[in-house]
Structure formats: structure tokens, C-alpha cells
Fold:
Amino acid sequence: MRDPIKLFIIGAIAFIICALFLGKGLTIDNYQFFLSRRIPKVLAIILSAMAIASSSLIFQTVTNNRILTPSILGFDSLYVMIQVLLVAIFGGFSAVVIDSEMNFLLSTSIMTFCSMVLFHFYFKSRQRNIFTLLLIGVVLSSLFNSATGFFTMVIDPDEFTYIQDSMFASFNNINAELVYWCVVPLLLCFAYLIKLANKLDVMWLGIDNATSLGVDTQKLTMHIMFVITLMVSISTALIGPVLFLGLIVVALTRQLFRTYQHQFLLLASALVSIVMLAGGQWMVENLFNFNTTISVIINFLGGGYFLFLLMKHKFD
Amino acid sequence: MITVSGLSKKYNDKYVVNNVDALFPLGKVTSIIGPNGAGKSTLLSMVSRLTESDAGQVMIADKPLDQWDSASLAKRLSVLRQSNNINMRFTVRELVAFGRFPYSQGRLTKEDNSFIDRAMINLDITHLQDRYIDQLSGGQRQMAFIAMVVAQDTDYVFLDEPLNNLDIKHSVDIMKTLKKLAEKHHKAVVIVIHDINFASCYSDNIIAMKQGQLVKSGTVAEVIQEQVLSEIYEIPFKVQEVEGNRISLYYR
Structure:
């Protein structure tokens, strides 16, 4: 099957699932109430799916590695640590924990700020090697994990329940106001990536060849890292940590589509991601009656898929 | 013309290239020879802006290297390193088409396509154009990468060990193509090469290096001398004239 046809089919599936979410049981009497609750949820799914898919895709391009996601830089762990610290310092009933808008602003700005500090030191130094950056990320994320572990021991067990919510991604109690805040910045990031798509294609050839072809690889990497930071911070603060999704989505996209063009791949991976995330959420609501979270389903399916890939490569 | 003066690079106080002067004129093939660790590849990658130098200057067409912006330099200077591991599947034509990126930014024009066609004809790989590069032999792959550089159509072409791991036929084909690029299309072709007989037969000028220093540079007749080569490689050399080419014998 040709790539555009596949893209069309996946787009159609994504559309149908989203329509199901919006339209189920809608009548003339109840549509105002239902839609006011459902539109933000579907929008949140679409936005975070897009953000996660495209940030993972371009992260793999600039690191020239097919099994990495931005989570290696410690975004997920930092987010959870921020939540734990807020509870530990201000208590479970404080505004920074309860007020989701305030919490969102705080988490996004801390995450963006920390990444900027890290990138600043990295891009300023003369010996620049992307793997140094990744290694620092790995070290930092285990530091954050340990700190999280420590503070969860220290805090009141009752207050721990507030944190538990933020440790897993969830669409069940999305704040509508927040979702609308995210639309413009995430769409801007996405548009910027589409604009850079041709340069990103050249990055497939490796740093040296890309330099020879006139791409300022250092500058491009820096811009891409900033965009990734923004997209990941916003989506994580919006729905919680699900960066594992990015790995699955990008791997699936690459299995499905032959092309190397980022313009196409960005769109395709976003659609695949919407299908996965919306499908997973549909399972949460209709198969499991809210007894589980989307993270669990994604991690289960994703882990299975990853094992399958490993086994396949082993026997090939 | 590229003029290199006093170029140096050091890693932890150890100079890998030390105060090297060189000229790379248009219309000539210049080979850089020397034993492993002589700094040949480092010199090449500094001149072609892949590695930053610690001291010295590179003048490209009378303008210092650091004053060129990378997009316009890509229309004048291209470079190909020896290992090209690619994580993505491309067809040969798609790969060669990347050579036109500096001109078209990914949106190929009619003119770009004719450059791509001609580059593939030059390297005799037109019949492979729809094959994926991971299905090709090492020689064919190398031809495809060189075709990409040819399609880039720059005045200055830098190649790091283009004959690495290639059989005799592919090596001869590539050297003939490079010679043609220099003579017919008036380009400056600079290669790092280990096979000194290939260097001797196809180069106009040779630069001989050892331990980061320039030992001798000049025409083939000036550098391919028993005494010079023995000094660089630390083994006895015999140089004989065969059909107008200076052939070195060093095998036993």
C-alpha cells in the first residue's frame, strides 16, 4: 500500500475515535453539558498526542538514534519530583497543588527553566557531543527519582494520594481552561517543526554530511531541543508523564511508512499517536470502567510491542 | 583557491596537526598522504569546517573560513567523510538528490533533477537509482555518496579516504571521476588517501604528512621520491617510472 493511502486510513481511524468520544449518547437536551466536558478532553488527547509524537520523532533525528525519547533527559522524573516537592513543602491542600492552573504554570516554567540551564551549559562548552548531554540527562533523572523516593517517604501518607494522581497520565479530570491555553503554543511548535522539516531530513545523513550540505547543525540542534522542551513540558504538565508513548508511536510510524521526509512523518506520527492515545482512553472508559489509567495501558501495550521488536531483531 | 596557513589542532596539549601551510588550487587533484596518525583527516576536516582549528587560518576564495555562512559555503565547498552510517532507508536517487539541498532546500527544480541525473551518469550508477542504499555493495554505496557530492557541484571537493575498502575496479573508476572533475569542470579536489600509487597516478599535487607536521608538498615528481617516502613511512622505498607514472615498490 502506498504511504498517502495509509496516512488517509489512519487519519480516518483517528477521526472516528475522536467523533465517538464527542458524539456518544448526545441528544438535543444534553449536548451543551456533554460537549463542554468532552471537547476539552478530545482536544487534550489530540494536542498531547501531537506533542509527544513529534518531540520523540525529532529527538531521534537529532540524536541519530532510533530507541531514544526525550524522557532520557529526565522530563518525566523532573515533573514527578516537582509535584512531590510541592506537596512536601506547601502541603496537600495548598493552592499550588490544588489549583491546577497554578500548578500547570509552575511545573511548565520550572521544567523549561531547568532544561534551558542544562542546554545553556551544554551548548556553551567547546566539547559538544550530544551523548554527553544524554548522559547528563540520565544521571539527572535518576537523581530526581531518588529525591522523589526520599520525599514520598517523608510526607504524610494521606498527602501521598495527591501525588499518586500526578504520577500517571490521565484524561479523566482535565481542566478545560488549561487545554485552551495549550492550543496556541503547541500549534506554534508544530508549525515551526514543519518549517524546519527539510533541514531535519538532511540530518538523517549524520552531522558531517549535514554540515557539508550547509545545515548549521549546532544551531538546528539547539532550536530543536528548545522546541522539544516546550512541547514535552506542556504536554507532561497537561496530562502527566507518558513519554513512553513516543517510543511506540515513532517505531510504529517507521514500520508503517517508508518515507524519510519529516513533513510527512511529523503528520503521520501525530495521527498514529492520536489513534493510540484516543484508543487507549476509549479502552480505559469502556473496557475497564475507569479502573485503570491510560499510562498503564500504554506501558503494557508499548512494553509488549518493544519486546516483540527485540525478539524479531534477534531472530532475523 | 584555498590557502591554509599555520593551521594547528591539539587534543590535551598534544598537537595532531601542527603549523601546516598548504594550497589547494582549482583544476587540480591534491592528495594528502602519510602514515596512520599523521593528522591527514584532521587537516581535511579543519579545512572543510567539520572540525574547529586551534590556530591558523583557512582562506576560501580570499575570504576567511569563519566569515562564510554555512548555507552559502555549501554551494562552494563539499566534504565526504569515510564512514557514513545512516539510520534511514534511502534510494540511491534520494541520496544523490540531497546534494542539491544547498540550492533547493529540499524542493527540487528541473535544473536540480538534471544535475542529479548527470551526477549518476558520471559515477555510472543510473541503473541503481531506485535501489535502497542498504541493499548495495560497499563500492556501489561509496559511488552513490560521491555522486551526491558531485551533484552538489562545488568548486572545492574534499574526500576522506574515498577508496577505503573498495576493489580495484571501483577505485580506478572513482579516481578517474575525480580527475575528470578537476580537469574538465575545473574543481579543486582534495583527497586523503593511503594508496600512494593511486595518489601518484592521479594527483597533480601531493602533501606528505607525518606526526602532525607537513614533511613535503609539491608536484608528484617532487614528493614521490625514494628518500621522502622512506622518511615518512620509515621503511625502504623504491620508486620506478612505469609508462610515465612514478610507481613505488615497498612490499618486500
Q: What stands out?
A: The mean pLDDT of chain A is 85. Residues 126 and 218 of chain A are 11 Å apart (CA to CA).
